[in-house]
Write a structure and sequence with these properties.
Layout lengths: L1 H67 L8 H4 L4 H17 L6 H22 L4 H32 L2
């Protein structure tokens, strides 16, 4: 009798082990699916963040063009006298910081374009802030305006590409 009991006990244990293995396999499949979903969600979050940062660069580019336009190509010495050149200089510094901060968004070619733009702006800042040489202010402002305007399509392209990456 004890042998029969042990046999049934062995059979029940085997069935329970098989059932546990099947259960563990199903749970592993569910966990794998959840991990895949988590990875996809993480990728979406990264893409969304990069899209927002790219849009920030585009917005900053548009904003700085408006800020510098009074001393840009259409600027005139007569009109500069009432303009706060130090405010424009600070805005340009801030724009350079934005380009540096978001440099990781750019490919190598575009990054060098952004770095060169930033260097050029920073090199011309003293001339922009020089209230005693208004002709020099117009010259430097025009140069900076043209360079930023030439960068606008690049910033727009980056923003568009990042928006397309968000699914």
């Amino acid at each position: 009798m004890e042998t029969g009991f042990m046999w049934w006990l062995g059979l029940v244990s085997s069935i329970a082990s098989i059932g546990s293995a099947v259960w563990a396999w199903r749970e592993a499949l569910n966990a794998s699916g959840s991990a895949s979903k988590a990875d996809a969600l993480y990728s979406r979050m990264i893409s969304s963040r990069q899209s927002a940062e790219a849009h920030q660069v585009l917005h900053a580019t548009r904003t700085i063009l408006q800020a510098i336009s009074p001393i840009g190509p259409s600027g005139q010495v007569k009109q500069i006298k009432g303009i706060d050149l130090s405010h424009i200089s600070r805005a340009l510094e801030s724009y350079c910081q934005t380009l540096s901060e978001h440099g990781h968004l750019f490919s190598v070619d575009i990054e060098s374009h952004a770095v060169n733009l930033s260097k050029s702006i920073l090199n011309n800042l003293p001339a922009v802030a020089n209230k005693s040489d208004l002709e020099g202010v117009i010259k430097a402002g025009t140069l900076i305006y043209i360079e930023i305007n030439n960068f606008m399509p690049v910033a727009k392209q980056i923003s568009d590409e990042r928006m397309e990456d968000v699914k």
